[in-house]
Design goal:
This protein is an alpha+beta fold. Helices cover 15% and strands 33% of the residues.
């Protein structure tokens, strides 16, 4: 509830978006909060006279100024400023953490794959849905990952235990494309040109 919010701030870099959210812990409602939880936070205001707040159901044409983040609660800090009040500070990170914590297991050798298909396959193995969670711009250039050739170790054979994000970053370095999670929780793989 908005009346329970003490403060909220969202950093807005292209990637690694984070949010700090402080709320009243009235009646201990957050005392069982442990672990990582998916969350979407929207903050801001409408600049028009109609109403302030309800961002998802704002009147058509009503100007709004807001920021949001779709990600996971990654840190929870409880505090008690005095005997009467209790607060909770939540740290929220974008969905990239989902790919950073997913571990590579039984991955194919990606040599010779279309780099977009390789990124989509890795993202899918990290918990992103291929068509719903991944945005890719059209491929405009050389799209096949290099092949090591006969009698050599594969170039894109990722070892067991490596994070899915690290595997994706290695392919991204070859393509020179941008790879990040946006404020809507979608993975974007875009040609910067």
């Amino acid at each position: 509830r908005s009346e329970d919010i003490l403060s909220c701030s969202i950093t807005e870099p292209v990637q690694d978006r984070t949010c700090k959210l402080s709320v009243w812990n009235r009646g201990g409602r957050f005392k069982k909060l442990k672990g990582e939880y998916p969350i979407k936070v929207s903050i801001g205001q409408q600049t028009g006279p109609e109403r302030v707040g309800d961002f998802d159901n704002a009147p058509t044409g009503a100007p709004t100024m807001y920021q949001h983040i779709y990600g996971f609660i990654t840190d929870i800090q409880f505090s008690r400023p005095d005997a009467q009040r209790s607060t909770v500070e939540l740290t929220i990170t974008d969905r990239k953490i989902q790919l950073q914590e997913a571990i590579a297991v039984n991955l194919p050798i990606y040599d010779g794959w279309n780099h977009i298909d390789a990124i989509k396959d890795l993202a899918n193995r990290g918990g992103f849905q291929k068509n719903a969670d991944i945005v890719v711009c059209a491929d405009t250039g050389n799209s096949e990952l290099p092949n090591a050739g006969f009698m050599k170790d594969p170039l894109y054979m990722f070892e067991l235990g490596r994070s899915i994000w690290d595997c994706m970053e290695e392919i991204r370095k070859w393509s020179q494309w941008w790879l990040y999670c946006d404020e809507n929780g979608k993975l974007r793989y875009l040609d910067p040109s």
